[in-house]
Amino acid sequence: MLSQLRSVAKFPSSVNTLFVNCMHPKYSHTDGFLYPCFCYVNSHLFSKSCLCSVEPDNLTDVLEFLLLGFSDDPERQPLTFSLFLSMYVVTMLGNLLIILAVSSDSHLHTPMYVFLSTLSVADIGFTSTTVPKVILDIQTHNRVTSHAGCLIQLSFFNLFGCLDSVLLTVMAYDRFVAICYPLYYPVIMNPRLCRLLILVSFLISLLDSQLQCLIVSQLTFCTNVEIPHFFCDPPQLLKLSCNDTSTNKIFMYFIGGIFGGIPVSGILFSYTRILSSVLRVPSTGGKYKALSTCGSHLSVVCLFYGTGLGVYLGSTVSHSPRKDAVASVMYAVVAPMLNPFIYSLRNRDIKRALQRLLNRTA
Hints:
Strand content: 5-15%
Number of strands: 6
Structural class: mainly alpha
Shape: globular
Order of helices and strands: HEEEEHHHEHHHEHHHHHH
Number of helices: 13
Oligomer: single chain
Distance between the termini: 79 Å
């Protein structure tokens, strides 16, 4: 038996390798079934991997992922379908109205509103990478996605998610310049710099997306995989991978620390300087006027990072993938849906532009 396993694994006989049966529940997948594979531990290299009945590398072309979603109960499917469809329609209409209002009103052709319309584009893309797939899966009763489809979804999800984060940082910088250096604002935030900031935000997000996709593309799987989520979530894929993912996890956390930590640090720095500048204003009315221009942006920042951080902390405590999937709806679906309402309800210029836009179409 040992010689057969060595021939399957293509290891030389000189390598001292200990084979352990993977039928132990530790090595089973989330569907409760145990698959015919063996784990080996190289006594010299202290490395662990998994040997399947077929080569894992040859499975990536035909590998399929089953997205388990929220519930297998058929009676709950119509409710889930209606909920996701309504949230997606509201998200699309709200963000499209913001884009149309900014583009059609010359009074809103300022850096703050240009960044806002770009944020609406990112929110549309962020929601569209996951919600239409959920709606289609429920309607067709088919929750299977290919390996390539999973990587594509993951790439766009990280692209627009990171773009949201970086744009919020750019908008914080815009508010910092407007409040701390109001006289120099038109000079500093010129159209050329605005276009450059948007381009750099997109390039940074693209780099983050491709690095995350590269990490996941290196993973191998023994069998078709069940993902207890409504989209291809990288942490879930790392847990279900056949090979050792310790290096991948370190690399992924490192990338997340850079592309997530730097924007958060930029936002905190901007608002620290803004608060310091506002406190030096002698009149109460002046303080309120200065802070009122930041209210909408600060609300969106708290909603985006608050829900994302809540999901991350909740996953470390609950250890329930289904609960993590439900919590992920907050930052992946609810936050992009609420952003247009936060800006339109708290901003008089947006209200007036929307009113003029509706009057034209009426």
